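lol forgot to send this yesterday, sorry. struct tokens for the thing we talked abt
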């Protein structure tokens, strides 16, 4: 049995002395992530669909403005599959040292095409949300309605010949209620932020489901075909939306 309250050997306050893998997969799981997993009573299906080695793109729906979906998903993959994911996330985490240092320690990497390709060429497993912030910060009135998928994850998969693991996360939508989506056009053009109802997440039961891997039959040179890449992204979105709707209908209660 793991003692989550045992004092770790690492000194948590000295963040700069800890590498990000030690912090996110040894210190935080002991005190936070495993407790969160129990709090949300996370049910996991389809772990057998994640390759044990090699480059992999895990592509989940994005929900619940808190970002807990990314952290818990990474924790599940690390603890249950024994792989260390690289989470590609919003550039706002990296605008200054105040946010970028803890972001790097948490295993976050700025979500750029170059960073994704670099990680995959090193045979890493990456987590990339195709909806971007539009999925994470959408109003709760649009719960479980996937927003338009960006093409980047498809281009990365084709360029590196990596499989895509479509992944569904249910429960995060209800854990954090978002009243509206704030879009800035004057001073912070293109920035989208949430208008949350609750800060402390509700104890909704979560389910994470990994779907069978998708191996795309295209050569790396195809990544410049914008129409093709867009069609593939849309097809994957439609497939995920269908299964997401089925899974959400199965639940008799969001709390059990």
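and heres what i got for the seq, position by position
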């Amino acid at each position: 049995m793991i003692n989550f309250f045992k004092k770790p050997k690492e000194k948590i306050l000295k963040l700069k002395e800890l590498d990000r893998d030690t912090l996110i997969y040894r210190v935080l799981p002991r005190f936070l992530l495993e407790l969160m997993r129990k709090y949300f009573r996370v049910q996991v299906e389809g772990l057998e669909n994640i390759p044990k080695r090699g480059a992999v793109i895990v592509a989940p729906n994005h929900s619940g403005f808190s970002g807990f979906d990314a952290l818990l998903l990474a924790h599940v993959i690390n603890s249950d599959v024994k792989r260390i994911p690289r989470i590609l996330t919003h550039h706002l985490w990296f605008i200054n040292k105040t946010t970028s240092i803890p972001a790097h320690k948490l295993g976050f990497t700025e979500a750029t095409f170059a960073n994704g390709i670099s990680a995959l060429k090193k045979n890493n497993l990456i987590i990339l949300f195709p909806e971007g912030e539009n999925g994470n910060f959408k109003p709760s009135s649009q719960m479980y309605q996937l927003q338009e998928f960006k093409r980047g994850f498809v281009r990365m998969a084709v360029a590196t010949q990596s499989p895509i693991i479509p992944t569904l996360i249910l429960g995060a939508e209800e854990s954090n209620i978002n009243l509206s989506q704030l879009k800035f056009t004057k001073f912070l053009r293109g920035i989208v932020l949430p208008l949350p109802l609750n800060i402390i997440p509700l104890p909704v039961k979560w389910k994470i489901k990994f779907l069978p891997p998708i191996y795309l039959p295209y050569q790396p040179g195809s990544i410049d075909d914008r129409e093709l890449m867009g069609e593939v992204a849309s097809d994957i979105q439609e497939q995920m939306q269908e299964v997401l709707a089925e899974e959400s209908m199965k639940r008799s209660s969001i709390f059990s």
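Helices lie at 20-39, 68-81, 97-105, 113-121, 133-136, 152-160, 172-175, 226-250. anyway ping me if u want another try
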